[in-house]
Fold these 2 entries.
Entry 1:
Amino acid sequence: MRVLVTGAAGFVGRYAIRELQAAGHSPVGFDRAPAPDLPCPLVTGDIRDAPLLRDTVRRIQPDAGLHLAAIAFPPGAGEDPLLMASVNVLGTVAICDAFRLEAPRARLLVVTSARVYGSPSSPVPLDEEAPLAPDSYYAATKASADLLAHRYAHDFGCPFLVARPHNHTGPGQPEAYAIPSFIRQILALRAQGGRGSLRVGNMESRRDFLDVRDVVRAYRLLLERGTPGCAYNIASGHALTIGELIARIAHLAGVVPHLETDPSRMRPTDASAPLDLRRIRRDTGWEPRIPLEQTLRDMLSV
């Protein structure tokens, strides 16, 4: 398949490009920034530029699309809510409309987030029919994108799908995110002989973490085998607290850090929603393969 990948030059986009190529597909990237090292053709532009997107889809005539372009760092939502809404919501409308008008038979996988469910204290894993209850501005923009993709599928008959992944990480993730930030600090402590403090936020929040390589494999399988009009949960099924996560990283690095609370890193206590994975298993056979310990080892060795 020829696959148009938005956000291709980002952290997840680069892994997605490699996953698609390894499976024999032909990705074409779309990103706002030039990326001369990207191993595929790249169209440079803003995801909100509807005419450019239509022209790109018309010229490329993709068989499928993977929509990753977004402002994806939740704590940044309060800093510029207008920008986040315009990219995450209007950008989704622009790519959906481009596919609807210029490649109506092409599949489009719109990636949102498991945060669309909020932080429910559910005794059982949530399936894809659970109500959306976003509890942050970021999650609200992703829930809007999620609902819009479904409306295009059901109102216009577009073969669109939605992916709702939990947190994912891996080598190369920017240090603005939690795990790369902890790893950078712990490696610095190790270089200093274990002396110093590790600056942390809320240690009680629980998160389900996936390896980005497992996640992009799920995206590729959904493009190949997923059912149009459906949403798909993507999770490891194993949540741990931020405190437990830091202890694992420190153990692997051979460091026993002193923890210092940083008010700028504090977030309200919440938890990743437990997710039912039966749909993605049934339709694609996907299962996470890379344990968190291996992900952390890979990140520590970069």
Entry 2:
Amino acid sequence: MPELTQAQLATLELKTLAVQRIEVGPWWNFKQVVSPFSRLWLILDGHAEVRHHGRCFELQPGQLHLVPPFTVHDCSCADRLDHYHLHFVARQPTGIDLLSLLEPEFQMAAPPAALACFQRLDALHPALKLPCFDPAQEAYRRFPAAAEQRGHDLPAADWFEANGLLTLLLAPFLRTAKNHEGVHARATRQFLAVQEFIHAHMREPVHLADLARVASLHPTYFSDRFQQLVGVRPLEYLMQRRLERAQYLLLTSRASIKEVAYEVGFPDPAYFTRAFTRCWKVSPTEYRTAHVR
């Protein structure tokens, strides 16, 4: 796995949000699904299709398929699909998910131990069963957020085992991964402390001088250097992080648009709505309506 240090990996937050075996049928036909967590499927029997990243993947027995966080995807099943599904996060202290920094293969043959890993994770997390299977339903979208907030309630040995099993399932994908050339990956490689500061102070007023101080650089030099290495100015990057956090809150909470705006550092909800619409081409209300019922 490229260019992530041992110290960065040591602080990675790995957490299982949902895991279970389920057989689906023609009703498993959903469009424009997007979630703030990753999905990993182990196909046991039957067939289905999933589309994302401009590709159509056929889900067949013996395969693992990975859908990274905030990946818009369609899924469909003509007959039946027996599979394990796993919802999880793998986040850095910056709030950026590991799979937003890397470009792995999305589908591969399952290693021999994959089924046993899923079965054991299922046994360790008997309460992490989705209440329904329609991604647009409120019960579905609120369940992973509630699982995150609960924290782990496992005995220490089981907690370590569960994280080890999740690591084993992710390892084959990370071996295939290349550096993502997106803005978050570049910022992580060059300005990790700045990312961490933004994550910790998302709700507060943050100025260029604050970010430059974290980087121990003069504001003008810092801004020029940040743009050279990351591709955008520091305050543009701050805006992007705030609007991505807003996506998460719109998908996982009942907070009003005004409350979301305040939570991500916009004291003026109207300005927040304009900025969100410029970035994502839809208003916050339209975004929530499209993905949440």
